[in-house]
Write a structure and sequence with these properties.
The protein has 186 residues and is of the alpha/beta class. It has eight helices and five strands; from the N terminus they run ααβαβαβαβαβαα. The protein has a five-stranded parallel sheet, with helices on both faces.
Length: 186
């Protein structure tokens, strides 16, 4: 788009705050300071996330937003594929999993339980965050009961997403740091 001459790119879903910031930047009103306050900051360079989402558009949006933070992103289209990708990866390869809940083949709750049951040293410590339109308190409880570390409601709020990812990464030590130090040889 930029090579074709576009001034800026805006992704869907379109949020009022994002559009407002873009229009302010284009018109010169508000300047950089206002734009920075509207667009949440996130710096996840050196981190690798697995995004599990069956909806292609939602998956593309999540990948685009997360790659902008410097994170390396891999994807899975359903829970079964996510479990297989995680199981085939080396311990510590993924830093975090963003898991849709309602998916074909294997839903997010089942996938989380399957990941937690794997016989590998990082299966119990990898942060898994639900990303779902189910936003009632019982949905949050169900996510936590399945072994997830947190719950993000759709449509997503970037600040909330980045804050919850940062919090999950801070409260969970990097698996490669733990196991490379020789504390556990499994």
């Amino acid at each position: 788009s930029r090579r074709a001459g576009a001034f800026s790119i805006i992704t869907k879903p379109l949020f009022e705050s994002t559009l407002s910031a873009l229009l302010s930047a284009i018109s010169g009103n508000g300047g950089k300071e206002e734009t920075d306050s509207v667009v949440p900051a996130g710096d996840f360079r050196g981190r690798r996330f697995l995004v599990v989402e069956d909806n292609e558009l939602n998956r593309e949006i999540a990948v685009g937003l997360l790659e902008a933070t410097g994170a390396q992103i891999e994807t899975a289209e359903n829970g079964k594929e996510a479990v297989e990708k995680f199981d085939r990866s080396l311990p510590g390869y993924f830093d975090l999993i963003l898991m849709d809940v309602q998916m074909p083949v294997m839903n997010g709750y089942e996938a989380t339980k399957a990941i937690r049951a794997l016989k590998r040293r990082d299966a119990g410590s990898i942060p898994i965050l639900a990303m779902t339109a189910n936003a009632f308190s019982e949905d949050v409880e169900k996510s936590l009961a399945s072994g997830m570390n947190g719950h993000i409601s759709k449509p997503i709020d970037l600040k909330e997403v980045f804050d919850k990812i940062a919090s999950a990464l801070l409260t969970t030590p990097r698996t490669d740091d733990i196991f490379l130090s020789g504390q556990n040889d499994n």
